[in-house]
Amino acid sequence: MSADPTVVVPALLTAAGLAPSAEEVAVMIAEYPARAQAIEALWAVEAARYEEPCVVFRAEP
Amino acid sequence: MYLSITDAAAALRSGETTSVALTEAGYAVADAHDEALGVYLRRFDETALAAAAKADEELAAGVDKGPLHGIPLGIKDIIATDEGETTAQSLVLDREWGTMGDAPVVARLRAAGAVITGKLTTMEYAIGIPDVEKPFPVPRNPWNTDHYPGGSSSGTGNGVAAGMFLGGLGTDTGGSIRYPATSCGITGLKQTFGRVPKFGCVPLGYSYDHIGPMARTAADCAAMLAVIAGHDARDACSVDRPVDDYVSGLTGSLEGMRIGVDPLLAASELTVPELEEVLAAATAELTAAGATVVPVELPLYKELTTATMVGMAAESYAYHRGDLQSRWADYGSGTRMAVSIGALVSGGDHVQAQRVRRAGQKMVAELFADVDLIVTPTSACGAPEIEKLTFDAIIGALHTPYWNALGNPAMSVPMGYTRDGLPLGLQIVGRPFDEAAVLAAGHAYQLRTDWHTHVPAMVSDLLAA
């Protein structure tokens, strides 16, 4: 998929079945690069390389 | 009604006041100011006054259920109560939700003799910003009604600050107890994740949500936490371990305690210049109370803040996607935009956020090997103007989400004002399950300062009367 927010954001929203207004989509597109950059920084955390996630699952409900 | 819970409990037992008088006084403030402040979604006058009368009878008969007996408290309207529907301040939530009756936390307060006065405003589903086009009150700050009181536990924050009740329950997923606490000049505690059961509360971020106390003082929060803490198997995240005696630990001394301070002044573009001086004055009081204060630097500050925002978005999106698809317009604009961020986050991103949390826990535990507590500002600035409110601007100012990623107990206490007269808060953080140390530090600080006793001018006329 393209990294272009004007392509990615509408595609993900459509795939999710969401139908925001054009104005709302424009806001999400504008905010996307900073958020994507912040998320990318999570993948750069060396200390997390071999960590287990903070997700708890027990076999008994 | 401007008493602390602790003072009111003493006044009830000395015969200086009654629970009915306290409850009526709070409702009188609400009659005068709720239209301007937007605190209540629903009042329970009849049942509250009946409960207050019963508390008066019991206390007169020598039946004493503890420090909350006869104390009027409000409940954020995402927590279920016996009195009826919970709305989450939303048109979307099925009104059948919450018919299980009191959430465990409310049942515990009621069993301790507390008087439940009503359900309080929130950000819709505890996320977003107020939408004036929806049929709900817009909460405002009693220190300046052009400004936001913080959220999402807005009604608990501005209601306590205005004197409509003596304390209440809020919830905190990224700072929603501590943000209104700092914005309204009151005290609010997000205790350790799992310490208080969250069954009976509408979820936002399953692995970040906390229900916690908001009141005028740390001692009041200690009294409330002592009642609401404890295991409940209906919450999968609830932790089964003994509850400390938080109240008896409030000695007023911080002798032997080592406190790390990270001013976080450069962590936000919204930091006001006066924050440095206000924080320095606050830490000087901690030193004067006997603590050794040392500089620290919080590790992975931006990454752990992001981990909370990514996790909250993903987890709330999982809860809301179906309704977002079919009822987009019924959501407030700020809420639907904030939750939809979850559609832009991958499954891998969410899991990576959970791995960063684990790494961060270990790094911060190393920090806590050298200090007993850490303090920071709760927020970089005072509460924003409602007209200029954006969700991203709120998050950009807060120093709270970091601790939701980690789960440590964190409390905000008032520490002064901006140059514009808006309250600022000191955030006190402890090791996991060491709420006692957090509360003890907050109490010691409040014995040496009087910020927590200040009353907003708009309601001080009622105090004089």
TrEMBL record, chain A:
What name does UniProt use for this protein? Uncharacterized protein
Instruction: Tell me the classification of the organism that encodes this protein.
Output: Bacteria, Bacillati, Actinomycetota, Actinomycetes, Pseudonocardiales
TrEMBL record, chain B:
Q: Where is the signal peptide?
A: none
- Domain (Amidase): give its ranges: 22-439
Q: Which domain of life is it from?
A: Bacteria
Q: Which Pfam families match?
A: Amidase
Database matches in InterPro entries:
Amidase, Amidase_dom, AS_sf
| Record-linked PANTHER family | AMIDASE AMID-RELATED, TRANSAMIDASE
**Protein name, as recorded:** Amidase
